Structure formats: C-alpha cells, structure tokens
C-alpha cells in the first residue's frame, strides 16, 4: 500500500469513528502547542530582543506565578535577571489573563516608559479592577490620562501650600509625643524594654496620616504601650484588604474565585468598614462646611446675629474636625481638597488613595532602616553627632524629646543617606508595571542622548512592561559590584559647608534611585515621607540604644531562618541571633513584625 492511500484510509477510519469535529479539534490543539510551545496562547514571541522564560505550552508561566505567590517572586525575578543570555538583559513571561509581560532590568528603559514615551504607557484596567473596590476608580493611583492629570494637579497644589506643611508639622509633633510616651513607659524605671517595632511604626504613620488627611484621631496611637494591643477596626480592615489585593496579582480569574469563596466575602466586609469610616468623616465635614457657609450667608444678611455664639461654636467644631476657623488657614488634606471638589465619592477616593500611598511605605521604610542599623551599628554615632549639632542639648540631656522642624531636614544628611540606602535595598513599592497602548520600540539613550546601550526592546500593543526596584537595586550593571551591600556613602557627598562635612547626594537622579518613581508620576509625598521618618528617628536615636531583641527578651520574629551554625541552643537563647545573618539575601518582607529592645542612654 502506498503512503498516500495509507493516510487516506487512516483519515477515513478516524472520521468514520469520531466524525470531523474531534479530529479537527485535536489537530488544532497540536498546531497551537507547536506554535506556542512555551508560552501563553495568543502571545507574541520576540526572540530577537528579549529572553522568553520557558513556560508550559498554551498556559505559559502560570504555574510558576501561582506557585511562588507574592512573597517568593522577587528572588525569582532576580535569578531570572541574572540568567538572561548575553546581550539580552531583559526577560519576558506570559500569564493569563494579562498576556506577555516584559521585565525591564535597566533604568534607561524605565526612563523611556515613565518619561520619554509617557503617554504610551498606562496603568490600565488591570490595576483599576484590582484596586477599584478598595480605593475607588477615580483616585490618583489608578487613573490615567486626563483623569489622572486632574487628580495630580489638585494634589500637587495641596502639597505645595504652606498650610499643608504647617498641618504636617503639628500632626507629626503630636504623634512624636505619643511615640515618646509609649517608649518612656515601656522602658520604665529599669530603662529597658522590648517592643514590636513595626507595629509602633504602622500606628505612627496611620495615626499621623488620618490626622493630616481627615483631621481625625482614630485612636490607634496614644502615649501608652497598652494602645499597641488595641484593635483599630479601620486599620485592621485596611491591612487585610491590602494584603488581599496583593494576592489578586498572582491569581488569574480572581473575580470569579472571589464570588464563591469566603475570602471574597471578607474582602467586601473589610472594604465596607474602611469606606464607611472614611465616608462618615467626609459627610460630617461637608455638613459642617454647609452649616458654616449658611451661617456666613445669614450673617451677611443680618450682621450681628450670626457672629454671635453660633459662629463661635461652629469654629470650635470645625477646629476639632481639622479645619481652621475664619479664613481657612491650616487646613488638612481633606479641607484643601474640599476647596476643589465637594463630590463625596471623589473625596473618598482621594483620601483613601493618599492613605495607601503614604502610610505603609513610610512605616516599612522605618522598619527596614532599623534592621539595617542593627546589622551596621557603625552608622549610629555619625547620626547622633549630626542630631547633636541640631539639638545641642540632646547629647547630655536625653529626657527632653527632640521635635524636628520640617525645614531642618537638610541638616541631617547622614541620617537621610542611611534612610535612602535602606529604601534603595528594600523599596516599599518593590515592583510596578504599565500597559502599552501602541507598539513601541524602547530605545534607551545614553547620557549623551545618542547611542543605544543597553539594547532596544520591542513592546507590542496591549502588552505589559514591568520592573522591580528591588531587583534593580541588586544588579551590578546598575549599582556596581557592591550593589547588595548597605552603603549609605552612595548618598553622601563631602561638603565642608554641610552639617558634619556632608551633603545629601541628590545627583543620582530618579532613574537610578527609582524607589520614589520618576517623571510626571514622581511620588508626591517624598519630602513628607523623609520628614515623618527622620522626625521619629531624631526622637528615638539619641534617647535609646535600639537592638534586635534576643529570644529571651521576647523576639517575635523567631524560627523564620536558621540560627548561625555552631551556636548551641543555650547560647542562642542567651545572646539571640546575630540577626539577620543572611538578611541581605532576599525577601522584601522578611518579618512583618519583629521585636526590638530599647535601652535608655
Ligand atoms: C518611603 C516612602 C514612600 C515611597 C518609597 C513612595 C514611593 C512611591 C512610588 C514608587 C510611587 C509610584 C506608584 C505607582 O505609580 O504605582 C508613588 C506615588 C505616589 N506617592 Fe509615594 N512613596 C512614599 C511615601 C509617600 C507619602 C508619605 C505620600 C503622601 C501622601 C505619597 C504620595 C504619593 C502619591 C500621591 C503618588 C501618586 C503619584 C502619581 O501617580 O501621580 N508617597 N510613591
């Protein structure tokens, strides 16, 4: 029998048995598997420019993403970045429903995305959907185009006014008073005590932020250590919802999943607690404003009546709510935004967007700062010397707390460098992405603006580009061979006229030190974040010697990594760990909570 007649007999026997549909489907599947052997069906392969990380036929890298979850992925990104073949520093993977994601591993590409061709790269629906139920769909974080421009314009005005600066200073000093009270009571007469430090910082930033944003005291930080044990429903709901959203990014089809699982129902409940809380504050404030305006109107009509007791009472109420009497000086964020819009839903989104932007980021930076300081105690004395220049009495009298003024930030370059270096290594926004509106070739320019090293990258319409500041901080091509070392000197310039002979090095620019983003969407709260963090450090460091708590002192971050080799159980119990022995290795959040021992100086 010839080959042709054998094939025709074979096909005939198959179609006789199964009809046409099944064999054609199988053939089509085979074709798809051959066409997409290691990537998601329907995605582009761009072998010329980018290394495609091998995945499974038709589903791409889905298994990898689901298996690693959010916390283990950064090590893997770094591993992949270091595994890229020569000449192709970027890699891509494909995941449903997003499609192809191109991971960029050099600041020059990010500059192209966030500045040179800014309009082509948007946050897109993926992000809006993931965050929408939590912080709304109209806030600065999730919007693009004209909608984002409007939010940005409003927010920039707020950040540039002196009123906001005054409110920030007053609020931060109030919170420092509480932090000081907690630590004083905790160290007590013995002059020593142990505390869950990140918990304190999360409360410090949340409490400050609620006051700055709404003029509301949510009672999560008081000058009493007992407050650290109290549950704050708004904060609990906020934390839980935020963690839940993080997981959405590694769960394709999460919308469907959430419809039928308890996790989805919980998310609805958390969102309700949070939004109801914020909505009530906004409604009350809008009502007050209406009343005030009405009272003023009546006063205009009938001078002498409205200026009586009722106006005084309104002023008192409004002051308590964070608004200033009379001419409206010293307004909080909400007060300033209310000058621009009175739409309660829009105001709600504005405020929640700001809380998400400003609270965790600063608290995490502080938590990591101390972890680095425990590992590098040689930086403590230069910081103390610098504080002593600003607060001369602090070297001898540690009973009076230091309250840093907003305008004195520049007087602490060494401290700022230590903080910036820890933010570089542990960026609070460790990864980010954008969607391409049109096909594009990213042609990175060198400093002369001419040639193209690293090589160009092609991006197709609808694809995502992503980067990780955590990974970039650990690439020798970006920060040199000592990239993984904690070296605040990267952020210091010798300057005879500067405090302690230093000046903070801001010449690195937003693309190399990219933790605060760059281009038109540069973080609006950078100075505020430095102020909040440096103010609390100026209070704590001269007054207490802070150490990683030993297990017998109540370390809560135990068992997460092995103790150093060669130490007996008794020694470990007595001395604690030289923690973290391998803290440099990886994880973005090694320990959400850890304990620190404070010893009165
Ligand atoms: C160490 C602290 C902080 C870090 C590392 C940080 C970092 C960032 C980053 C990476 C972005 C870009 C996010 C994105 O586009 O997805 C961003 C945006 C933003 N940040 Fe910060 N941030 C910090 C603190 C703050 C604070 C205290 C505020 C005050 C409210 C703030 C306000 C904002 C706002 C409003 C945006 C949106 C800008 C826009 O899209 O136009 N940030 N920040």
UniProtKB/TrEMBL annotation:
UniProt KW keywords: Heme, Iron, Membrane, Metal-binding, Monooxygenase, Oxidoreductase, Transmembrane, Transmembrane helix
Annotated heme binding sites: 523
Bilayer-crossing regions: 6-34
Keyword Transmembrane applies: yes
Cofactor section: heme
GO BP annotations listed: lipid metabolic process
Basic and acidic residues bias: start-end ranges: 568-577
Keyword Heme: yes
Name of a matching Pfam family: p450
Spans annotated as Disordered: 559-581
GO MF annotation terms: heme binding; iron ion binding; monooxygenase activity; oxidoreductase activity, acting on paired donors, with incorporation or reduction of molecular oxygen
Family note: Belongs to the cytochrome P450 family.
Protein name: Cytochrome P450
Protein's organism: Pseudomicrostroma glucosiphilum
């Amino acid at each position: 029998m010839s080959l042709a007649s054998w094939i025709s007999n074979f096909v005939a026997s198959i179609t006789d048995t199964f009809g046409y549909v099944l064999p054609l489907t199988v053939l089509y599947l085979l074709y798809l598997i051959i066409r997409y052997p290691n990537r998601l069906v329907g995605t582009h392969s761009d072998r010329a420019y980018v290394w495609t990380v091998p995945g499974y036929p038709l589903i791409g890298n889905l298994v990898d993403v689901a298996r690693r979850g959010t916390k283990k992925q950064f090590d893997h990104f770094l591993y992949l970045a270091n595994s890229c073949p020569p000449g192709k520093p970027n890699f891509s993977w494909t995941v449903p429903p997003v499609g192809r994601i191109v991971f960029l591993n050099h600041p020059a590409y990010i500059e192209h995305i966030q500045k040179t061709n800014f309009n082509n790269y948007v946050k897109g629906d993926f992000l809006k959907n993931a965050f929408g139920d939590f912080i709304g769909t109209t806030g600065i974080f999730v919007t693009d185009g004209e909608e984002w421009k409007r939010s940005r314009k409003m927010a920039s005005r707020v950040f540039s006014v002196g009123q906001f600066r005054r409110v920030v200073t007053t609020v931060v000093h109030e919170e420092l008073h509480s932090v000081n009270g907690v630590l004083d009571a905790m160290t007590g007469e013995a002059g020593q005590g142990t505390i869950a430090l990140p918990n304190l910082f999360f409360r410090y930033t949340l409490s400050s932020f609620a006051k700055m944003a709404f003029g509301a005291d949510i009672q999560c930080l008081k000058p009493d250590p007992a407050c650290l044990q109290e549950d704050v429903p708004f904060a609990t709901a906020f934390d839980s919802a935020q963690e839940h959203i993080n997981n959405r990014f590694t769960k394709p089809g999460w919308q469907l999943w959430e419809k039928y699982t308890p996790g989805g129902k919980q998310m609805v409940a958390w969102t309700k607690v949070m939004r109801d809380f914020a909505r009530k504050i906004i409604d009350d404030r809008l009502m007050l404003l209406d009343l005030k305006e009405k009272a003023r109107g009546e006063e205009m009509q009938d001078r002498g009546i409205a200026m009586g007791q009722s106006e005084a009472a309104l002023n008192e109420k409004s002051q308590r709510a964070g608004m200033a009497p009379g001419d409206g000086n010293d307004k909080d964020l909400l007060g300033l935004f209310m000058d621009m819009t009175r739409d309660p839903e829009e105001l709600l989104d504005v405020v929640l967007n700001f809380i998400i932007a400003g609270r965790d980021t600063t608290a995490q930076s502080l938590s990591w700062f101390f972890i680095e300081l425990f590992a590098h105690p040689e930086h403590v004395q230069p910081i103390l010397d610098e504080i002593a220049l600003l607060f001369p009495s602090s070297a001898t009298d540690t009973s009076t707390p230091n309250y840093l003024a907003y305008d004195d930030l520049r007087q602490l370059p060494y401290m700022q460098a230590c903080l910036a270096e820890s933010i570089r290594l542990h960026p609070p926004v460790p990864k980010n992405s954008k969607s391409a509106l049109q096909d594009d070739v990213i042609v990175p320019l060198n400093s002369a603006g001419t040639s193209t090293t690293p090589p160009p990258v092609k991006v197709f319409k609808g694809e995502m580009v992503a980067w990780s500041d955590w990974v970039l901080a650990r690439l020798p091509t970006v920060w040199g061979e000592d990239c993984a070392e904690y070296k605040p000197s990267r952020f210091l310039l010798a300057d005879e006229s500067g405090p302690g002979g230093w000046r903070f090095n801001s010449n690195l620019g937003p693309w190399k030190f990219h933790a605060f983003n760059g281009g038109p969407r540069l973080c609006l709260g950078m100075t505020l974040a430095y102020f909040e963090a440096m103010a609390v450090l100026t209070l704590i460091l001269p007054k207490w010697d802070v150490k990683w708590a030993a297990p017998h002192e109540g370390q809560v971050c135990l068992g997460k990594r092995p103790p150093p080799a060669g130490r007996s159980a008794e020694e470990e119990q007595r001395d604690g760990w030289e923690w973290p022995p391998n803290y440099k290795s990886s994880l973005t959040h090694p320990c959400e909570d850890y304990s620190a021992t404070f010893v009165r100086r």
